[in-house]
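Dear support,

Our group has been running a series of protein-ligand predictions, and this particular one with fe (ii) ion is the one our PI (initials K.S.) wants archived with full inputs and outputs. We had some confusion internally about which version of the output was final, so please treat the block below as the authoritative record. The input we submitted was:
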Amino acid sequence: MNTQINPSSSDMTKNYPLRVPQAVMVASRCELTDLPLNILEGKLPDDLQGYVFIVAPTGSVDSGGLPYPDGTPIFNGDGMIYRINFNAKQEAKITTRIAKTPCYYADEATKKGSEYEKYGFKNHGLTRFSIALGVRNQLNTAFVKFKTSEDTNDRLLVTYDAGRPYEIDTETLELVTPVGANAEWRPEVSLSMPFGPVLTTAHPFFDAETQEMFTVNYGRSIGNFMQTIPFIYEAEKLPHVIKKIIEAIAGFLNILKIIKFLLNWVTKIIWEVYKWISSLFENVLKIKMQNFVYLIRWNGSGNFERWKLVLPNRSPVVIHQSLHQIAVTRNYVILMDTAFGLGIAETFNNPLPNIKQTENFLRDILSRPLSPDSYVYIVRRDQLIGGQQSAYSKQEVEVVAKKVVIPLEAFHFAADYDDSNGKITLHIGHICAADAGEWLRVFDSLADSAETPVPARLYGMLSGEADISRLGRYVIDVESGQVVESNVISDDKLTWGMALNTYCDILPSGKPAEKIENIYWNSDGFWPELLTTFIFNLYRNYKYREVSNEDLLKLLDRQEGKPACLLRLDTQEMKIADAFVFMPEVEADNTAQGYMINSPQFVPRAGGNGDSTDGYIICTIYFKNSSEIWIFDAKNLADGPVCKLGHPELRFGFTLHTAWLPKIAKRTADYNVPVEEDYKDLVAKKTPEIQELFEKEIYPHFKSKNP
Ligand SMILES: [Fe+2]
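Confirmed final output from the archive:
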């Protein structure tokens, strides 16, 4: 075990304002093919093998990449799939492709200057939306690798929280088919739009032992959806002078915000009135939004089976935030209401994207701190019998989920496959006092000075956290619903902004690892440039605060950050056994230029023994204007990367999740949802011109794939 953690970060940024690397804001939409990467430092390990897949949002058809000039969040963008080939000895080659869904082609065909411009999509916060066509499925978040006994090769899904997953051909990187027909998914709200809002998890789970894929489909009954949709509809037609009046009113209402902070009860009244108006819209317009959560099982070739989740008292399971991640053990499926506000309500709280005063006001009255607790729902797999085939049957089948509450919120977690004696073990990264759905907006100010605007170069970047993160290991006794073991740690130098994890999940035998003995996490660090007054105030009274507001303000006053980190958590000892701290570099202008890390992926060593540290960690790194791929020995993070790769054409922006495949191959699986058949009923309800748009601009792209 490596106990030498590289130099302490405690003093490294004191007295030097820490700067966010610009590279994280910049992404190219240029598709590359087998581009050899330059070895910038070190040597490619001989026993590094296979293909690493990374996905990242990469702007829209209008923006030409990132950054957005108008402060749109960088997470609103088409998914760019990156595939790095490590099988060519002494050389790593990269191929990239944009995930081109039917709605991507609709977006392309309706962009400014096109024949169908009036149906065009616009950015509304995290969502890209067209009032005539619906919501973009951007497929920019994660992957799921899977292989059933009928498959000759590994298959790969690319995913998104607010849209169906798609299977890609691992050789060409082209989208082949959605998983599940439109008729099998229930949108959050039924609208007469071809691209309906579908909420799911960005992390479906494939059980390699039983060869079953699990995912979810859910919706939330939030009245504010209906307040914003008619508003958007009308806003699209508003003459300029009316927009100016709205802007002036919103500006006045922004002044009222000051009063709001002094008089908390004003907010409560506004919120109640707001809910009442929203429910009125729901009733008048006869559009229902209901709470529902379906657990879906798919065998990789047939139709979905799904079960509606209810609590023991038969009331529906209610998701308040999102189901960003789920996990599966031998006998249970685990859902968590994750710390990421997602859905129609959140994504449409920016109905007038060109009027910042309105956006400022609406964010202020609509935003609530996320729950400081994690709500976990556990479903017994042996209950999952005879589920509803939603393509054919309206008869719902209910199963009971057990609810367990774990203190501290979370965005990502993993579970041991082993659940002997009815005990589930969860490994959770708690990112505290933060919201992955919030970003730096053009009207934001820095938390330590309401007079100081956030840097314009970071408009659209993910907002920072307002407390230190923690790492937790929990054992839950499912029968009693009690957390019977709880072990939570934090480290002031290493655990700020816990982000993504990776671990050795599949053994050389192809079976899942029984226990996660070692789990690798990257932490984002703490960046004074990214903590806004808005987030600081939102979490001022955070329930589980470890670093006081006063100490946080002292850090901010000094512009002192906490560096990013890559660490290995020994889950048995519950201690950080190895870590690399990305120390900033002080420049001649006395600023500390920081490093960011993202997208860690464990790659087992060729010829290795299947040990949970016997491999490499591949990750994306940002420093100033440079975007690089670094390779660490998974047994020895502290010594730093063994190899650094880069290329002037490689501009990947803020990358998210990853996958590793030992080899790629032309897809041979038969499963296929033909695009034209999938959309024809939805499109038939639209105007002849929109029907023509689909005939001319969308279906032809899929004809060869769906003959
Ligand atoms: Fe995720």
